[in-house]
Design brief:
48% of the residues are buried. The strands form two sheets. This protein has a six-stranded parallel β-sheet. Strands 7-8-9 form a three-stranded mixed β-sheet. Helix 1 packs parallel to helix 7, helix 10 crosses helix 12 and helix 13 runs antiparallel to helix 14. It is α/β, with parallel strands linked by helices. The chain is built from 15 helices and nine strands. Strand 1, helix 1 and strand 2 form a beta-alpha-beta unit. It has two domains: 161 residues, 3-Layer(aba) Sandwich (Rossmann fold), CATH 3.40.50; 120 residues, N-(1-d-carboxylethyl)-l-norvaline Dehydrogenase, domain 2 (Orthogonal Bundle). Helix content is 55%, strand content 13%.
Length: 299
């Protein structure tokens, strides 16, 4: 499965459009579909073929990528009228880059294999819009190992790393772990910055000091800077992080994990969205913590 093999992509939001562009740039023959054709204009200008349905994208494709918002959307794209399952060939590989619940992901993989003889890999990603644009995403993959290995060139076109974690659904569990770490760390970082501000410290100087020690993290580097700069245009929307934290809570419950940090982080995302900031970058959590601490916005 190497260029110029035929691949397809369904779901051309901020992340999906960038991943599809990288597949085209890598030399794959690309077919695309999205609910709104306007989002495919740049890809079509670069040589991608528009398809009228997910089924049409899948016909003749060695691999089909998906990137849609939530579990019901994945099910509809795969098995709804005009879905991928109507056009996929036996032996083809579908890679779902969406972040959804693990149990349905495993169920979708079993159904696609039973009904069409095609493999579904769940591969949620980390790295955000910048990683999607630059082709440096981290792919967390569950599903058939042979299918994973066959799709190595596809993963290489969209990401810096792809790790096979186990059977179908395993990638989604790892993504839930990723999101709970990010959100719980954001809560700690923004509480720390609020503490510094109330004590009279310059928050950017404080951030730089903390980056020099063991508190250093990607959240302190990137999310805290976005908050302090007031650069809260998404990015990764708070309402999507709330969805991911709901998935993380569900995963913890399903596996019997004692997870108080996850519970608190999930509640803070609920509060952030309920405060009217759901369309802002998830780093707007810093604004909410500051507000609850009696502080004005940092920027």
């Amino acid at each position: 499965m190497a260029p110029p093999a035929s691949v397809a992509f369904v779901g051309l939001g901020v992340m999906g459009a960038a991943m599809a562009a990288n597949l085209r740039r890598a030399g794959f023959a690309l077919a695309v579909h999205n609910r709104s054709r306007a989002k495919a204009a740049t890809l079509e200008a670069d040589g991608a073929r528009w398809a009228e349905s997910p089924a049409e994208t899948a016909r003749g494709a060695a691999c089909v990528g998906l990137c849609v918002p939530d579990t019901p959307d994945v099910e509809a794209v795969l098995f709804g009228p005009g879905g991928v399952a109507e056009g996929i060939s036996p032996g083809a590989v579908v890679i779902d880059f969406s972040s959804i619940a693990a149990a349905p992901a495993a169920g979708f993989a079993a159904r696609l294999l039973a009904e069409r003889g095609a493999h579904l890999l769940d591969s949620p990603v980390s790295g955000g819009p910048a990683g999607a644009r630059d082709g440096t995403l981290t792919c967390m993959v569950g599903g058939d190992r042979a299918a994973f290995e066959a799709a190595a060139a596809v993963f290489g076109a969209v990401g810096r790393s792809a790790t096979h974690l186990g059977p179908a659904g395993a990638g989604q569990v790892c993504k839930s772990a990723n999101q709970l770490i990010i959100t719980a760390t954001m809560q700690a970082v923004f509480e720390a910055l609020a503490l510094g501000r109330k004590a009279g410290l310059d928050p950017e100087a404080m951030r730089q000091a903390l980056l020099g020690g063991s508190a250093r993290s990607a959240v302190l580097e990137a999310h805290a800077k976005r908050y302090l700069d007031g650069a809260l245009k998404p990015g990764f929307r708070a309402e999507l992080m709330r969805k991911d934290m709901r998935l993380a809570i569900g995963a913890a419950r399903d596996h019997g994990v004692f997870a108080p940090a996850t519970a608190l982080a999930a509640q803070m995302m609920e509060a952030l969205v309920n405060s009217g900031r759901g369309g802002m970058d998830s780093a707007a959590l810093g604004e909410l913590v500051a507000e609850l601490s009696g502080l004005p916005p940092a920027a």
